Structures are given as structure tokens and as C-alpha cells.
Here is the input.
Amino acid sequence: MSIGNSPEDERPFEDDREAARISVGRALKQARIEAGLTVDDVTNATRVRIAIVHAIEADDFAPCGGDVYARGHIRTLAKAVHLDPAPLLAQYDADHGGRPAPTPAAPLFEAERIRPERRGPNWTAAMVAAIVAVVGFVGFTAFKGGDDGGTSNQVAEGSTPTASKSASPTPKSSKSDTPKSDPSDSAIAAAPQDKVTVQVSATDGRSWISAKDHNGRLLFDGLLKQGDSKTFQDNEKINLVLGDAGAIQLYVNGKKIEDDFQPGAVERLTYTKGDPQVG
Here is the structure.
């Protein structure tokens, strides 16, 4: 009769280790409680909505809108409750099939690699078009020169030069009708000086955004599809949260913001009156 432990005797110890493993949501909740913070405190500090904080602490990541946003919220909440986000992210990846591929960034980088290869044919086509335009212009000038000769003959014979004079202002009027402003110029002209105006456009993909005024009143909370835009205005400041900042183009007080936001990055921004600058 053996007095050693059988494999069946060792299994409960493995089960105990598995049972002792704390989930991501439970770890965040315990750390928040130990830090003496409420869910409202965490929401005010991180701009993550109360409903999403409750869902994450219950290990329900569906309201986050995807693995990229879920990982961003976990990182943000972990820092707010003084936890190292790296182990929590590793545990989340292990529980959800590994770290997600950076799907928003891949098409962008692929497009940047392809564009230089396509510029050669495009420049060639542009040069051909320019040559054709020059040849056409020379031919048109020669043709107009012949017409001018006929006109001068008519004047010498006693016809009035009214037609030739009336024809000359035509190209001038066409030049004056040519629009010289683009949408950004009109946005600058339309932005009031005594208010802060923020335009958010999803130019490179879709992104969840949230906007609040200086009183904390929610102006918008939802998903912008690619090509959509929203404009917010307040007397003092606008607070923004961008779920995928790399997909967003901002105009603040009519001026384009040139910040290099990374695809998939969550950004929290505040803009005030005057020159565009993060508050």
C-alpha cells in the first residue's frame, strides 16, 4: 500500500490555484475600493462612462465596443486605481484569444507603403496632360490670332469694335468667380471669437467620441462613422474623449489641429478660447 500522493490527490491543489486567480474586473474593483474611490470618482478622473466602469468591473467588456477599446479602458482604469496595467492586459489577452491585431493601423500603413509606388505613373500622366494642355493652348492662341486678324479687317472696313471689347472682360469675370477658399477657411471665418468651437471629423475610420461643456454637461456620446463630423461650442471650454484618435481630424476655433494621434489610441483633450492649445 503506497503512502504517497496519487495524481488525484494533487488535482485539488491545481483547482485551488485556478479558483484563486482574480479576474481583470475583480482586480480593478478591489483596487478601487482599497484606494477609497467610488465609481463616480474613477469616471471623473478618466472620463470613462459609469456604465462602462460597472461593466468592466463585472468582467463584461461588450459595452467597450471591441478589444482595442477594452484594452484602452483597462489601461486607463488601472492607472486611476494605482495598478500596473501590464499584467491585467496580459490576462485579458489570455482570456480573449490573445492580443488583437492592430486592424485600424494595418490598412493605414499598407496604404502609405503603396502610395509611393503609384506616384510614378501618376506623375507621368500629369506630365502628359500638361504637354497636351500646352499644345492645345498654342493651337488655341494661333486660332485666336487668325480671328483677331479678321476682326481688325472688319474694323478697318468701318465696323465697330464693340464685340472685341466686350469679349475681353469674359476671362476676367471667370477668374473672379473661381472660389479661393476651402472648407477650413470658411470654418475660420465662422468661428466666434468669444466662444470655443470644436469640429470633430472621422476622416480615416470610425471612432467613439464623447464631448462635454465647461459645466460637465454631456453634449454627445456615441460613434462617428467614417465621413461623419460633429461641431461643439461653449463659452469657456470643450472636453473631448476620442476612442480612436488616429481616425479623427480636429478643427479648434476654425484652425486645424496637427497633433500626430496614433491609431487605436484613446485621447482626452480640453480646448478653450483663443489659439488652439490643449487646456
In short: Confidence is low (pLDDT under 50) at residues 1-15, 105-118, 150-185.
